[in-house]
Write a structure and sequence with these properties.
Strands 1-2-3-4 form a four-stranded mixed sheet, with no helix packed on it. By secondary structure, it is α+β, with helices and mostly antiparallel strands. Strand 1 and strand 2 form a beta hairpin. It is about 25% helix and about 25% strand. The chain has one domain: Deoxyribonuclease I, Chain A, CATH 3.60.10.10. The protein starts with 20 loop residues before the first strand and ends in a 19-residue tail after the last helix.
Length: about 130
């Protein structure tokens, strides 16, 4: 699955092992793809792949979409993964444009509303930055 039809650059692609998982596509946009997944053991979950826009107005639209999804599927386990193109706290950013505290609050409020937990990554702390 890809969002190529919804974004001129096709920002993400989702692949899975069909012998283990059965996926059903629900919706897609330039910033997210929503699906349900069921494994051979019977676990069913809602999945969302995200690639957040660089533009705040579009990010706000994404946060609203995530809230709607959380409300409409509150009882189903879910995973949201990808690149939100923002940070939760200023320590997660190095260089570049200054952060707007209201934009950080908007993102964190969305994650809290949706009961999403930030899973810490392993490996290099900085995977990308604007400094040479």
């Amino acid at each position: 699955m890809t969002n190529h039809d919804y974004s001129n650059k096709g920002k993400f692609c989702l692949a899975w092992d069909p012998q283990i998982w059965t996926l059903a596509f629900i919706s897609c946009s330039g910033q997210h793809m929503i699906f349900t997944a069921r494994n051979v053991g019977g676990l069913t979950l809602m999945g969302t792949v995200v690639y957040g826009s660089n533009f705040q107005q579009e990010k706000t639209s994404l946060w609203n979409d995530l809230r709607r999804l959380a409300r409409s599927n509150a009882s189903m386990p879910r995973i949201v993964m990808g690149d939100f193109n923002t940070v939760r706290i200023s320590d997660e950013k190095l260089g570049g444009k200054l952060l707007n505290i209201n934009q950080l609050k908007e993102f964190n409020d969305c994650l809290d509303y949706c009961s999403l937990t930030d899973m810490k990554s392993t490996g290099n702390y900085w995977s990308w930055h604007n400094k040479s």
